[in-house]
Amino acid sequence: MKVRTYAIYVLLTTLGVFLCDASTKHNGIGPITDHFKHFLDENGYSMFDFPRADMSDFGSFGGKKQDSDKITNYPVVFIHGNSDAALTANSFSTGWTNTVNYFIKKGYNLTELYATSWGNTIVSQASYRKHDCKTVIRLRKFVEAVLAYTKADKINFITHSMGVTLGRKVIAGGKLDDLSETCDVGSSLASKVNVFLGLSGANFGLCSCASSIVIPTCNVRNGFYPGDFCGPQNNALCGKSAYPPSCLSKTYSEYLMNLNQDSNKIADKTFSAWSQDDELLGNKNYVWGNFTSLIVHSTGHKIYNGLTHMQTKENTSSDQFLMITTGTIPK
């Protein structure tokens, strides 16, 4: 029997991964500056290890070099996906290097671009990662630190893959029920967010998780479980654009349901983008009749053809820039 799970996909992907000299691709972008690190240490953030020194120069980026450095644009916070990193670590974990270089080319500087890595780039551990309190709270604290450090009225978000659903909770705040604990993320930060861009997120789960709920990343509580809308014997219908009206169940991942049922906005403008040829999300992006990458209450969306899951992040820098800076969808 052919078993398709998120974990198996990621494990197979590693067969083609070869480590590269990441430092040659970063051009001094990472890690975060000493100026920002000093601020973090002085303001009680050192326990969260935002620099990620264990990842050398690809674990984080952002910050001033000196007090006089100016912040002209709304700062951008980047949140990567499962087994990725802030900047290029290897040929699979490519980080935000392309996007950051493009933004710098267009006039931004590192006082306005921020990221910390979450998790690690060990792809064989991808199946164990979920939307847990530790990860969400840590990313929330990073966002709070960026707001305090930059003193910006608003910030922007660019997120990819699992970073989309993590980022949505970071902004929305509220209670989070983990498999092992319950935590309060805090009050909503939506009033502080100008544009939220979600690239290739799994907002309605992954069909590949339908029969794999024992895998942590697919779990029913805070994973990518898409639901058994027609009963487990009909999971093959998950990726169809429509399904029989007799399939009335609307139950899927509790974490994702809570995000999608929240009537409050997470930003002034929210954009979603994905590829119909995404090999990880599959099924032309359908999960029980929904586009899984379409964030509820999106202002607009962009659908690509011919791009892989990672290429929707790597090859769309100009579109990302346009959506963030103009608040419009590229043609």
Index terms:
single chain; 331 residues; alpha/beta; Rossmann fold; seven-stranded mixed β-sheet; two-stranded antiparallel sheet; 9 helices; 11 strands; globular; disordered N terminus
Please give a structural write-up.
There is one protein chain. The chain is an alpha/beta fold. The chain has a single domain (6-326), classed as Rossmann fold (3-Layer(aba) Sandwich). It is 24% helix and 14% strand. The strands form 3 sheets. Strands 1-3-2-4-7-8-11 form a 7-stranded mixed sheet, sandwiched between helices. A two-stranded antiparallel ribbon has the order 5-6. Strand 7, helix 7 and strand 8 (269-275) form a beta-alpha-beta unit. The model is unreliable at 1-24 (pLDDT under 50).
What's the short story on this structure?
Helix content is 24%, strand content 14%. It has 331 residues and is of the alpha/beta class.
Q: Which fold does the CATH topology refer to?
A: Rossmann fold
* N to C succession of SSEs: HHHEEHEHEHEEEHEEEEHH
Shape: globular
Strand pairing plus helix content: what structural class? alpha/beta
Q: Strands across the major sheet, in which order?
A: 1-3-2-4-7-8-11
Q: Specify Rg, calculated over alpha carbons.
A: 19 Å
Mean pLDDT, to the nearest integer, reads 91
State the CATH architecture: 3-Layer(aba) Sandwich
CATH class: Alpha Beta
Tell me how many strands there are.
11
Distance between the termini: 42 Å
Tally of individual domains: 1
Approximate helicity band: 10-25%
